[in-house]
Amino acid sequence: MPGGAGRPRVRMTGAQRRQQLLDVGREVFAQRGYDGTSIEELAARADVSKPVVYEHFGGKEGLYTVVVDREMQRLLDRFTSALAAGGSPRELLERAALVLLDYIEEDTDGFRVLTRDSPVGGSPDGYASLIGQVARKVEHILGAQFSARGQDPALAELYSQALVGMVALVGQWWLERRSPGKEQVAAHLVDLAYNGLARLRPPPGGP
Fold this sequence. Notes:
71% helix; DNA-binding transcription factor activity; transcription cis-regulatory region binding; transcription
């Protein structure tokens, strides 16, 4: 069956076509955002008809949701692997910061998709949800440190959200600059956070 400009359309299995559409969607959503992307452009980039996109994902929103979910899982898997290796609390926090910076550098399209606004009815608060999941992985590291220092371990949730949110925001800034190096950025961020945690004031009403 001929494609555009007289080119033969490549035949794919259903699984191959689905993967191709996911890859195309990731690229286009990263470039244009959800609202700026049309089903016509997605189909044209994949060299298929619009009904093919609807057949696999039910439309643009369905494709976007799967792309976001796939990127979230990809990044969470990186965090899980990095934190499972063990080490001191400071090493673990620095490794966690570096995981996000590595992802930004190596999977820039995926990061751009995650940091754009989600559509109404789509994958709600995708990036915020992702950051919350990452923060929960960091929370157990801080909780042990709080207990050891006589602080309320329940505060670890607040501080893990603050720490991961700081790294995520700096990561967006670093994406446009790529300077200083990501290892330096991770070290400085953890330096700021870790030194601040080491000097926490006693809880109100405490000794």
